[in-house]
Amino acid sequence: MKHHLRIFLLFPLLFSFFTNLYSQEVKTVSVGLFTGEGYAEQDENGTWHGIDVELIQNIAQTEGFRVSFVSLDSSTQGFALLDNGTIDMLADIAKNETREKKYLFSQHEQGNSSSNLFVRENDDRWDYGGVDQIKTMTIAVERGNISISDLLAWCRQYDFVPTIKEYPSSAQTHDAVARGEVDAFVEGDNFFNGFRSILTFFSPLQESGT
Known about the structure:
Elements: E1 5-12, H1 15-21, E2 28-34, E3 41-42, E4 48-49, H2 51-63, E5 66-72, H3 75-83, E6 89-94, H4 97-102, E7 103-105, E8 111-113, E9 115-120, H5 131-135, E10 138-142, H6 147-156, E11 163-167, H7 170-179, E12 184-187, E13 195-201
């Protein structure tokens, strides 16, 4: 049975971070969020709302620390800010062996997601799930996004290597498809206004029954 890609809260592997967190002083923890409708978004007053926001705020209330949120444009930016200490925690991050060597993941999943291949909503060249068509595509990916690994693994099952073009942020992959610069982009969400999914695929690591 195939499972969705599991996503977690991510922390730096720094003893000082946890020492400060559980000291007598109430600490403010800076959390990097990838904005998305219903998940993490700010209203006109700058107040954060969404499922991810509520989850992190509940953790903070239970553990006795405050949170501040930082809006992120890309996973590359998120990891850079985590590495230089600008933020203390990243939300919605998929786990892999390389990342586990450098970072500490939450014990429990924050949620789960599949990856999708999106084209322009009005681009009628592409049918859903057409492997031969996907072989001809140029696909935009956000640099450092784990969905790249999932896409490559899926393509290996059909004995081809996709044509990929990397961009610094997910927003730039969307713009590239909208302009017709590339044919499709890969994302770990299920819906984007103005685009449609022609393929849903899963991480091979999540194909066991566990």
